[in-house]
Amino acid sequence: MSRFLNTFTSRSTLGNQFRRLATTGKIPVTTGFSKKFQHGPSLGDFLNNSSEISYEEALELKETVQTSSVKKTRQRLPTWLKTEIPVGNNLTKIKKNLRDLKLHTVCEEARCPNVGDCWGGGEHQTATATIMLMGDECTRGCRFCSVKTNRKPKALDVNEPENTAEAVRKWGLDYVVLTSVDRDDLPDSGAEHFSNTIRKIKEKASHILVECLTGDFQGNLEHVAIVARSGLDVYAHNLETVEAITPYVRDRRAKYRQSLAVLEHAKKTVPSLFTKTSIMLGLGETDEEVLQTMKDLRGVGVDCLTLGQYMRPTKRHMKVTEYVSPEKFNHWAKVGEELGFKYVASGPLVRSSYKAGEFYITNILKKQRTQSIDPTVEKEQNIGTIP
């Protein structure tokens, strides 16, 4: 009987196709959907679906499991993480300058909660924007980051170093942060582009302190050295999280030990460089792991550490495991002081490039410059805590 039905169905379908050909003169084309429908999973596939899932998948699912009788209560954002909508004349001016010069900022791409304060002037009345070089498409796909990804981003803009330097000069900044998307598609991962931009800035405004927040250059320490020798003042590279959960947070090409090696080599290449990194909390790390991470950073001579709350940029990204309290952030600031960091910025809204932090670092670097000119000036260390 089943054989008869199959034959009848096939002949009926074939007949319909011939009739369609006769009336339209076109051969029917099987769509992708129909192919999937014809060769889709069987009932057995649904009944025997017992395959294991990865840690990443478990992390995504653990907060979404629901029953018909219990509804999950939506977790409210703590009061200490709520920020005002960014407004202001300075913010509008900087945005216009960026668009006119075809520049991008990580402040916008990463949806930073401090953009209104940093661009608007705020407490220190100094506008700060972190300019993102080499386009707005990254060759990597970290699970915490909202920057667009593309295996083959657009070619580098040869005018970007000049445009960036001109923008920085117009803003009248004392301190500028340059960062970039990861460009694993380039032979040097963008090291020379970084270096050229820094030199252009120093040519146009030698007084400006320049911080570069770089990628890991795929572990190529020669490329790290190119940036370190370019004349910058602060070499930053973010560790992002503790070692145990690095594979689940960062792109598979970004490794914990590799990042430590980048920071260590930058300091060895130019010992006077101020090295800096950042880690996020609220991703499922333990206190013991955070402490060990801080010790690892001091072991490679990192001068500055920032700790901030991970904030989920979209529903497609990792969920927040915990909203860490301001008191815990203050605790880590004290631990950092005890471990010997020259500066620690620790708070829920602190980010790797944070204006208040740059204000403190500026003071440290200026004192170091003064000491190099006059050795009798006592060397001081500043520890900053951002509540």
Automatic annotation (TrEMBL):
InterPro entries: Aldolase_TIM, Elp3/MiaA/NifB-like_rSAM, LIAS_N, Lipoyl_synth, rSAM, rSAM_sf. It comes from the Eukaryota. Residues 121-342 form the Radical SAM core domain. Its cofactor is [4Fe-4S] cluster. SUPFAM superfamilies: Radical SAM enzymes (SSF102114). Binds 2 [4Fe-4S] clusters per subunit. One cluster is coordinated with 3 cysteines and an exchangeable S-adenosyl-L-methionine. Signal peptide: none annotated. [4Fe-4S] cluster 1 binds at C107, C112, C118, S353. Keywords: 4Fe-4S, Iron, Iron-sulfur, Metal-binding, Mitochondrion, S-adenosyl-L-methionine, Transferase. It is an enzyme of class 2 (transferase). SMART domains: Elp3 (SM00729). Pathway: Protein modification; protein lipoylation via endogenous pathway; protein N(6)-(lipoyl)lysine from octanoyl-[acyl-carrier-protein]: step 2/2. [4Fe-4S] cluster 2 binds at C138, C142, C145. Pfam families: LIAS_N, Radical_SAM. It catalyses: [[Fe-S] cluster scaffold protein carrying a second [4Fe-4S](2+) cluster] + N(6)-octanoyl-L-lysyl-[protein] + 2 oxidized [2Fe-2S]-[ferredoxin] + 2 S-adenosyl-L-methionine + 4 H(+) = [[Fe-S] cluster scaffold protein] + N(6)-[(R)-dihydrolipoyl]-L-lysyl-[protein] + 4 Fe(3+) + 2 hydrogen sulfide + 2 5'-deoxyadenosine + 2 L-methionine + 2 reduced [2Fe-2S]-[ferredoxin]. Its main location: mitochondrion. PROSITE patterns: RADICAL_SAM. It is found in: Mitochondrion. Its EC number is 2.8.1.8. Belongs to the radical SAM superfamily. Lipoyl synthase family. This is Lipoyl synthase, mitochondrial. The lineage of its organism: Eukaryota, Fungi, Fungi incertae sedis, Zoopagomycota, Entomophthoromycotina.
